[in-house]
């Protein structure tokens, strides 16, 4: 099993698992550093202790035999396998030519000692410096974050904005240090594959050069050497190409949102501060939390660095999640959850507003319920298109031909619903009655038109107008007067047959009709049947099919104003049609 992979995205999450993987790499670097020191020490022994050369070579050979390469990932390539086995091959060769090594000592310092020392100081040393910087920025960021989250929401906005800017700056410094440290660790782990082997290979080549008796052994070693060089070159080429891609990935990760949700086994994970109630108040403790949307499993692990106790992990089954109003708690970025295992709610604090939004989305969190009837500019403020479309889709998917209008209730109190209907609710598109100077005539004419609407259109219109009456009664707060509501809903409820300039000029009359419906909704009940009986004072012969013929003294029922000026709608002998208004007398 090789070293665990370090992803750049883990730097943003900074999970306990990420820290454990870092420790594995740090342990490997320490082990490699120690090995390099031992190797250099052994090499110096070869140069300085001629009399003890045999013992030094044996120890050096033994060190090579015992060292085991650890590569990143679960599987190794052929090149990596050959490179990992190369030390054992070298050890065998060294044991064979032990007596002939003294000539190699003259060049051993430049060939072997210097490159290894350079790698240890420049590469591993740089990794250790990166660790120091990472540890420093970690302590600084979490200390600053804790102070930031303890800021009261009642502070001045300018002060809070300045605090937000400062924590963003500290967070970015922490992320940069983490990314650079991960990158350097990856680089050192990859470089050691060839920067270890190449000096040793040169050292062995020197052996064959300076020792005549090693010629035959070198001849036999040649195929392996070529294969190893090929493996090293492949590894180097892979490193160069991989390094470029890794650098690009690091830059992309660095440029994304700081609250970026990296891919992983959990729907959402990260640090949250949990409110814990105490006898003398409450405290906020940092926990590392995970949530799986499929099983609704929520876990909390107490990872507070100030806590001297053992890490405790609690598991819960989520019931609900609701965003916490800012004015209900003296903390920012809070939300409440309910779980099966506890009574009441648990209050959690996210690291930022964007971070809270990610948690709410993962947990299907809801907004706190509140009435919007007093919202200033209600129906004039444009809604978020995605949310409007989601609401429309929900309504239309559940709608069927047998559903009652009253069952829709508040779902239909949106302009988008009426605007997207294939046919308008008020299917009569032009009203001469609204142009009349007689206000009573206007009301009666509109009443007549409402009465002629299909039953479902009338029910839906009644539902809407009743709601608009309620809205208009709060006009001092929401500024939605009857006139404003007419302007908004007139073009929506009534449409012209053709989209022309002339039709646009008639929009003002559509607005007047909506105003009449709102103003007279409770006065005369426009949506109830309102008709009278009448008697003909004169006889009349119909000239058109929609008119009625009748003798003098004819009795009419169900008489009410028509949209045609000077005409009434009436029923005579079972037929309904138009009659002249000045020909009859109301009973």
Question: Can you describe this structure?
Answer:
By secondary structure, the chain is an alpha+beta fold. The strands form two sheets. Strands 1-2-3-4-5-6 form a six-stranded antiparallel barrel. Strands 10-9-8-7-11 form a five-stranded antiparallel β-sheet. The radius of gyration is 42 Å and the shape is elongated. Strand 5 and strand 6 (346-349) form a beta hairpin. The chain is built from 17 helices and eleven strands.
Q: Which percent bin holds the helix content?
A: 40-55%
Mean pLDDT: 79
Computed CA radius of gyration, to the nearest angstrom: 42 Å
Question: What oligomeric state do the depicted chains represent?
Answer: single chain
Instruction: Give the SSE string.
Output: HHHHHHHHEEEEEEHHHHHHHHHEEEEE
Shape, please? elongated
Low-confidence parts, pLDDT < 50 over ≥5 residues? 399-413, 427-434
Helix and strand composition category: alpha+beta
- CA(first)-CA(last) distance: 102 Å
Spatial arrangement of strands, main beta sheet: 1-2-3-4-5-6
Strand-residue proportion: 5-15%
How can the largest sheet be summarized? 6 strands, antiparallel, barrel
How many strand segments?
11
Instruction: Count helical runs.
Output: 17
Could you give a quick summary of the protein structure above?
With 587 residues, the protein is an alpha+beta fold.
Secondary structure blueprint with pairings:
Blueprint: H1 10-13, H2 16-48, H3 53-66, H4 78-96, H5 105-149, H6 157-195, H7 197-210, H8 215-255, E1 268-278, E2 281-292, E3 297-302, E4 313-323, E5 334-339, E6 346-349, H9 353-362, H10 385-398, H11 415-420, H12 439-452, H13 455-472, H14 475-478, H15 482-493, H16 501-505, H17 507-519, E7 532-536, E8 555-561, E9 567-572, E10 575-580, E11 584-586
Antiparallel strand pairs: 1-2, 1-6, 2-3, 3-4, 4-5, 5-6, 7-8, 7-11, 8-9, 9-10
Protein name: Rho GTPase activating protein 42b
GO cellular component, one term: cytoplasm
GO molecular function: GTPase activator activity
């Amino acid at each position: 099993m090789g070293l665990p992979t370090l992803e750049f995205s883990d730097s943003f999450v900074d999970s306990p698992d990420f820290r454990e993987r870092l420790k594995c790499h740090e342990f490997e670097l320490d082990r490699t550093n120690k090995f390099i020191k031992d190797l250099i020490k052994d090499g110096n022994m070869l140069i300085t202790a001629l009399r003890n050369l045999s013992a030094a070579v044996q120890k050096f050979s033994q060190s090579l035999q015992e060292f085991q390469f650890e590569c990143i990932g679960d599987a190794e390539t052929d090149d990596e396998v050959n490179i990992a086995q190369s030390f054992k091959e070298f050890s065998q060769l060294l044991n064979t030519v032990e007596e002939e090594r003294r000539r190699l000592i003259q060049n051993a310092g430049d060939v072997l000692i210097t490159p290894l020392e350079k790698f240890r100081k420049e590469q591993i040393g740089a990794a250790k410096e990166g660790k120091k910087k990472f540890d420093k920025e970690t302590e600084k960021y979490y200390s600053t974050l804790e102070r930031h989250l303890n800021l009261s929401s009642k502070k001045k906005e300018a002060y809070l904005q300045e605090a937000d800017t400062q924590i963003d700056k500290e967070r970015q410094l922490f992320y940069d240090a983490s990314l650079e440290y991960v990158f350097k660790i990856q680089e050192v782990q990859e470089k050691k594959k060839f920067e270890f082997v190449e000096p040793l290979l040169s050292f062995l080549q020197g052996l064959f050069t300076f020792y005549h008796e090693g010629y035959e052994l070198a001849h036999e070693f040649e195929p392996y050497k070529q294969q190893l060089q090929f493996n090293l070159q492949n590894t180097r080429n892979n490193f160069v190409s991989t390094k470029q891609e890794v650098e690009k990935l690091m830059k992309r990760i660095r440029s994304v949102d700081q609250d970026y949700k990296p891919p992983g086994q959990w729907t959402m994970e990260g640090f949250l501060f949990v409110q814990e109630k105490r006898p003398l108040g409450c405290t906020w403790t940092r926990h590392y939390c995970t949530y799986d949307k499929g099983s609704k499993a929520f876990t909390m692990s107490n990872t507070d660095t100030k806590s001297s106790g053992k890490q405790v992990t609690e598991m819960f089954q989520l019931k609900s999640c609701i965003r916490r109003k800012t004015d209900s708690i003296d903390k920012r970025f809070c939300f409440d959850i309910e779980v099966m295992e506890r009574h009441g709610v648990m209050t959690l604090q996210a690291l930022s507003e964007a971070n809270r939004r990610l948690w709410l989305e993962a947990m299907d969190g809801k907004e706190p319920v509140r009435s919007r009837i007093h919202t200033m500019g209600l129906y004039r403020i444009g809604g978020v298109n995605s949310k409007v479309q989601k609401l429309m889709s929900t309504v239309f998917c559940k709608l069927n031909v047998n559903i009652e209008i009253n069952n829709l209730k508040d779902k239909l109190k949106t302009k988008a619903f009426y605007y997207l209907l294939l046919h308008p609710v008020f299917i009569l598109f032009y009203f001469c009655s609204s142009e009349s100077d007689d206000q009573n005539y206007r009301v009666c004419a509109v009443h007549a038109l409402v009465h002629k609407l299909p039953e479902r259109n009338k029910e839906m219109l009644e539902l809407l107008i009743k709601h608009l009456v309620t809205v208009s009664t709060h006009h001092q707060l929401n500024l939605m007067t009857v006139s404003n509501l007419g302007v908004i809903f007139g073009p929506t409820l009534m449409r012209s047959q053709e989209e022309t300039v002339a039709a646009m000029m008639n929009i003002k009359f559509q607005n007047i009709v909506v105003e009449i419906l709102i103003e007279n909704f409770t006065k005369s009940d426009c949506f109830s049947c309102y008709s009278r009986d009448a008697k003909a004072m004169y006889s009349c012969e119909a000239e058109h099919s929609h008119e009625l013929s009748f003798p003098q003294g004819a009795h009419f029922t169900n008489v009410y104003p028509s949209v045609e000026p000077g005409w009434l709608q009436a029923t005579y002998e079972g037929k309904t049609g138009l009659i002249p208004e000045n020909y009859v007398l109301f009973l």
